[in-house]
Amino acid sequence: MKTFITIVLLSFLSTVGFAQQYDSIKEYYVHGKLKAVGINKDSLKHGEWKFYYPNGNISAIEEYKDDVLDGLAIYYDTLNHIVAKEQWRRGMEQDSAWYYYPNGKLKRAGVYGFGAYKGVWHSYHENGKLKSVGSYINGMPSGDWKFYFASGGLEETCTYVNGVQEGPAVYYKESGCIEAKGNKSNDLPVGTWVYYNKRGKVKKTVEY
Q: Where do the domains of the chain lie, and which CATH numbers do they carry?
């Protein structure tokens, strides 16, 4: 009987020792306006937290685990427009992310890997037309990239290596004609560059 009572008591003490405390938290600006509201687990942010601008509009909705970002985060400007949606894992951006103009149009979209740009990213002009498309490796632009005018026409093609332009590059006029072409090294023009007039005829060549 004594042995049984001892086991029950030890079990109870063990349960109490591992009990987790959840507290509802509200934070305020010095002028009294609500700044943030959420839950703390054992004094660490946990679950959904909401943050507010001094004007009372929401600035962010974030998911936490053990006081670090973990889950979907949504960010707003001061006028309540969504400006970003990001996925977080253990305090770093991970997986898909979307960024927006104040008019609600998509500005940029792609994927993060451990807090760095990864894979193909697309960016857009405010009118919704494609602005650029290209890939990232280890957070830096890599491979072939294309840039576009707001009208939709091709503006530039180039190649990135470790975040800088290397190799052939072609620039276009908004009319669609080639404006200039040549090679780049470390983001700078090198060798022979050819420039064209609006009729597509060679205007000049320049040696770099």
A: 115-208 (3.90.930.1)
